TrEMBL record:
The gene is LOC108699036. GO terms for cellular component: plasma membrane. It is a multi-pass membrane protein. InterPro entries: ANF_lig-bd_rcpt, GPCR_3, GPCR_3_9-Cys_dom, GPCR_3_9-Cys_sf, GPCR_3_C, GPCR_3_Ca_sens_rcpt-rel, GPCR_3_CS, GPCR_3_vmron_rcpt_2. Its main location: membrane. It comes from the Eukaryota. Keywords: Cell membrane, G-protein coupled receptor, Glycoprotein, Membrane, Receptor, Signal, Transducer, Transmembrane, Transmembrane helix. GO terms for molecular function: G protein-coupled receptor activity. This is Extracellular calcium-sensing receptor. The chain crosses the membrane at residues 518-543, 558-577, 589-613, 633-657, 678-701, 713-733, 745-768. Residues 519-783 form the G-protein coupled receptors family 3 profile domain. It is found in: Cell membrane.
């Protein structure tokens, strides 16, 4: 303040030819002394007389102060009655922004509520969800604790405990609070306190060796110099604090280094400061000579006045970091600029009635208050200073980290800032590389009630506990953790599936039996191989068509059966590849028709054998049917019935391709839906009926002479066919996805291969390896031998 007034008085631009003076009052953190000083200022008497002004000519124009909010509040109530300008440099209580209660109060310090916002953002930034809180038992502490609690809980955090620190000395409360702090799992302790009883608390915390906590403080105590002991500094090492923006005051460092008692002869504090700074005693200090005469002859160090202030440790005599000092500087210049505007006011253009101006030498307090409210100026550092409608300045605070070094020195390190004018969510800026934690630069402490749940687990509240204390319960299958609520899991859409961390839903893989994979490729190769083998047999039978073994049992039916088997093998290829509307419609229909043709051809073959042998028996009743050529009508008749069933199926409820979301986890199976299960069952049932009839007829004819008889082979092939399709049913029902299609293809290949091997391989064996047996004489000889009738 002295420096600012000297600068103003030396200025030729600001209040030229006017000299400002000042008076200093020490309120000693006491509301009572602050009020006493206010009544002394207003009344002009050493013993204040309320409502009387006994020395109006020397009344101060404005009051700069007080430092503490508890002292500024009663002072502002009294000064507001007379609209007496008051500009505080440190009082941050939010209540003081109420212009109805405090109409003449302004401040160069920000609204203290924003400290709570900054601390809440700091707690959120480091994911500290379980924090303790200690607050002073005054308006500032209680209102700050309420606001902090609301903001921390709004950000998802919880208050582990809240303890009230009395203003008056109470060691019982100090012991109780330190016990709570030591027992608590909360690593972070927020101190929303003023300085009065905080030293005792920190001394007790140091005595109990509570060094594993991170203390977070408000500007009311954090940058104070009241914690000089190393044990307290060790306890506070690594702690955080909120402080006013560090401002620049050009020339102030030089001013501080040039201070000397000889320049301030009437300053009562100057010699005391000098003695404490250099640990010496002025020779003319009579009080010291009387109380400690023994030290005069032995250990006393005399002050000479030649000591250099720039030799003092900057931690003790800081001439670089100006926080409250900067606010005082701005407050004095705000009053000076207001006076300057009053001085240069032009009559007729003034702000008062009829454009009148106020007399700078004889004005009312409310007139100067008007000018201070409207003041806008750039201070000596170039920063713009102004007051809003609540008498507050723009909010910009520094985040400090208290760092203790091995040599015993300590330092406040600027590690971040909080700018309330920034866009929402971007107010806080932290420089992690500057922070020194108790465990080192990168050892960020955790402060949680329950450890964070692993991926794919949701929070489950514990009954009777706060929201930050929880159990971890895994999300159900097909669910992910709700990104907006960690206590809830949400189900993924049908076409999506959780990733391995259950943090997001990913599109399911499309699955079908394709030619690109080993299974599909192998089945396709088997189908083609069997088809080629069938073609070979057909060619062999065509070449040997005039031989007895080919001509036996209806050569035309053999050709038809081979062609049907060839198409049967080829139809299995329709089951491989991505299903679509066309393939789903034709593959089951073609399969049903071809196998009906095969089974009906076998039935016709069996009936042909029976009729041939019946014709040789004079007593047989079937002899009359030989001429009707019944086997020729069996194949088309039985096949047409299956075609009719398939046509009804396709026209009423045809098969179609669908995406099966539930067949396999995390996979969409593209498969064919049968459409109508009833008609699908009818088609399969009809084919089963034909197979049953064919097996029954072949079984009954198995004991006929075997020269031209195929019934034994047909019986065996039908047993293979029946076995394959009976075992197919449970296998089909127990598999999912592409394995179901593979089972179906395998059943088609197995049953078709059974026909080919059982019926045609024995004949191929004779044709290729024993051609001598493929002769009419051989067959006749066998016939004679086999069918000799006794006389």
């Amino acid at each position: 303040m002295v420096f600012a007034i000297l600068k103003i008085n030396a200025s030729n631009e600001l209040l030229p030819n006017i000299t400002l003076g000042f008076k200093l009052y020490d309120s000693c953190y006491s509301e009572l002394l602050s009020l006493m000083g206010a009544t002394r200022i207003l009344s002009g008497k050493k013993i204040g007389v309320p409502n009387f002004n006994c020395n109006k000519d020397i009344m101060p124009l404005a009051i700069i102060g007080d430092l503490t909010s508890k002292a500024s509040v009663p002072l502002a109530r009294i000064l507001g009655l007379n609209r007496y300008p008051q500009v505080s440099y440190a009082s941050g209580q939010a209540l003081l922004s109420d212009k109805i209660q405090f109409p003449s109060f302004l401040r160069t310090m920000y609204n203290g509520d924003y400290e709570c916002f900054a601390i809440a953002q700091l707690v959120k930034y480091f994911n500290w969800t379980w924090v303790g809180m200690i607050y002073s038992n005054n308006d500032l502490g209680r209102s700050g604790a309420q606001l902090l609690t609301r903001e921390i809980e709004k950000n998802g955090g919880c208050i582990a405990f809240q303890e009230t620190l009395p203003i008056s000395s109470s060691m019982e409360s100090v012991y109780r609070i330190t016990g709570v702090v030591k027992r608590s799992r909360a690593t972070v302790i927020i101190l929303c306190c003023t300085i009065e009883n905080l030293v005792s608390l920190m001394e007790e915390a140091s005595f109990r060796n509570i060094t594993d906590k991170v203390w977070v403080g408000t500007s009311g105590w954090f940058i104070t110099s009241d914690f000089p002991r190393r044990d307290i500094l060790t306890t506070l090492n690594g702690s955080f604090g909120i402080a006013a923006q560090n401002g620049k005051i050009p020339g102030f460092k030089e001013f501080l280094y040039n201070i000397h008692p000889s320049l301030f002869l009437n300053d009562p504090f100057m010699k005391t400061f000098w003695e404490n700074a250099f640990h010496c005693v002025w020779p003319q200090n009579d009080a010291y000579n009387k109380t400690s005469p023994a030290l005069l002859k032995e250990d006393i160090v005399w002050c000479t006045g030649k000591e250099k202030l720039n030799n003092i440790d900057v931690n003790i005599y800081d001439v670089y970091n100006f926080k409250y000092t900067y606010k005082v500087h701005n407050a004095v210049f705000a009053v000076a600029h207001a006076l300057h505007q009053m001085k240069i006011c032009v009559s007729g253009k003034g702000p008062f009635k009829n454009g009148s101006c106020a007399d700078i030498y004889n004005h009312q307090p409310w007139q100067l208050l008007h000018y201070i409210k409207k003041v806008v100026f750039n201070n000596t550092a170039g920063d713009q200073i102004y007051f809003d409608e609540n008498g507050d300045v723009p909010v910009y605070v520094d985040i400090l980290n208290w760092q203790l070094f091995p040599n015993g020195s300590n330092q406040y390190v600027h590690v971040g800032s909080f700018d309330a004018s920034s866009p929402k969510g971007q107010e806080l800026n932290i420089w992690l590389n500057k922070i020194l934690w108790k465990g080192g630069h990168n050892n960020v402490p955790a402060s949680v009630c329950s450890n964070p749940c692993p991926n794919g687990y949701r929070r489950a509240a514990l009954q009777g506990q706060k929201a930050c204390c929880f159990d971890c319960v895994p999300c159900s299958e097909g669910e992910i953790l709700n990104p907006y609520d960690e206590s809830d899991c949400i189900k993924c859409p049908e076409d999506k599936w959780p990733d391995s961390r259950k943090k997001e839903c990913l599109s399911k893989l499309m699955q079908f039996l394709s030619y690109d994979e080993a299974l599909g490729f192998s089945l396709a190769c088997m189908s083609i191989l069997f088809c080629l083998l069938t073609i070979f047999v057909l060619c062999l039978f065509t070449i040997k068509r005039k031989t007895p073994i080919v001509k036996a049992n209806n050569r035309e039916l053999s050709y038809l059966l081979l062609i049907s088997l060839m198409f049967g093998f080829m139809c299995s290829l329709l089951f491989i590849g991505r299903p679509n509307q066309i393939t789903c419609m034709i593959r089951r229909v073609i399969f049903a028709v071809i196998f009906s043709l095969c089974v009906s051809a076998l039935l016709a073959k069996t009936i042909t054998v029976i009729m041939i042998f019946s014709a040789t028996n004079p007593d047989s009743k079937l002899k009359k049917l030989v001429g009707l050529r019944i086997p020729i009508y069996i194949v088309p008749g039985c096949t047409i019935i299956q075609i009719i069933l398939c046509s009804v199926w396709l026209t009423t409820a045809a098969p179609f391709a669908e995406f099966n979301m539930a067949a396999e986890k995390g996979i969409i199976v593209i498969e064919c839906n049968e459409g109508s299960r009833v008609l699908f069952t009818c088609v399969l049932g009809y084919m089963g009926l034909l197979a049953t009839i064919s097996l029954s007829v072949a079984f009954l004819a198995r004991k006929l002479p075997d020269t031209f008889n195929e019934t034994k082979f047909i019986t065996f092939s039908m047993l293979v066919f029946a076995s394959v399709w009976v075992t197919f049913i449970p296998a089909y029902l127990s598999t999912k996805g592409k394995q179901t299609v593979a089972v179906e293809i395998f059943a088609i290949l197995s049953s078709s291969g059974g026909f080919l091997v059982c019926i045609f391989f024995p004949k191929c064996y004779i044709i290729l390896l024993h051609p001598e047996m493929n002769s009419r004489q051989n067959f006749k000889g066998r016939n004679t031998t086999t069918h000799r009738v006794p006389k």
